[in-house]
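Morning F.,

Quick status update on the modeling queue. The single chain you submitted on Monday has been processed. Sequence for confirmation:
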Amino acid sequence: MYNLIGAGLIVIGGGIGLGQIGGKAMEGIARQPEATSKIQTAMIIIAALLEGLAFGALILGKG
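Structure tokens below.
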């Protein structure tokens, strides 16, 4: 029971984090279009790390 609640919180937290990353990246690109490639690269790396963290927490929370 509590594992399911923990898994739900992990998914919600990961979704919020990814939304924040995407939103802030779009704001940065709108302010400095010439830095688009650098911002996108950083956004993809951070999003991948966040997803890895969320998947790891889900695996650990399952047991």
